[in-house]
Amino acid sequence: MNQDAEHLRLLSIFHYVVAGVAGFCSFFPLLYTVVGFVFVALSHHPPAHPGQEVPPAAVGWVFVGLGIFLFLIGTVFSLVLALAGRSLSRRKHYWFAFVVACIECIFVPFGTILGVFTIIVLARQSVKTLFSIPVEGD
Question: CA 20, CA 61: separation in Å to the nearest integer?
Fold first, then answer.
């Protein structure tokens, strides 16, 4: 059982690391938001050359909305990963950690690797019994 506790501790640490990477990556869609605001600003000004067309403001607002939406999805995903890491370290909420491990397989390559290893460890019967035993310090 000591080896299972060590595996859960390592998985918890790696969940925090991958949550940090996912949180960092969630800022990249904000570039869409910046581009969208540039499109909106350009649509309100006349073109520099007479033959040029001004981009419609609706295209800019689509970019703004998409960037904010993807940022929020990435932020929520990184928070859920951190909560799963906390669940693993405290050995609580077994099914939450298991479902997050399945979902994080979408986050290629780090989430896939971590998700598969988490599923393998959580599938052990000895680990399931660890989740039913209270952890010292709780």
Answer: 29
Measure CA of the first residue to CA of the last residue in the chain; give whole Å.
19
| Measured torsion, CA atoms of residues 94, 20, 22, 15, in degrees rounded to the nearest 10 | -20
Nearest to 75 by CA among 127, 119, 23, 1: 23
Question: Using CA atoms, how far apart are residues 126 and 138, in angstroms rounded to an integer?
Answer: 20
Are the beta carbons of 126 and 84 closer than 8 angstroms?
no
pTM of the model: 0.86
Question: Taken in order 11, 13, 17, 22, is the CA torsion positive or negative?
Answer: positive
Rounded Cα distance between 93 and 12, Å, is: 13
In order along its 138 residues, the chain shows pLDDT tens digits of 589 999 999 999 999 999 999 999 999 999 999 999 999 998 888 777 777 787 788 999 999 999 999 999 999 999 999 999 999 999 999 999 999 999 999 988 999 999 999 999 999 999 999 998 776 655
Is residue 128 within 8 A of residue 95, CB to CB? The reply is no
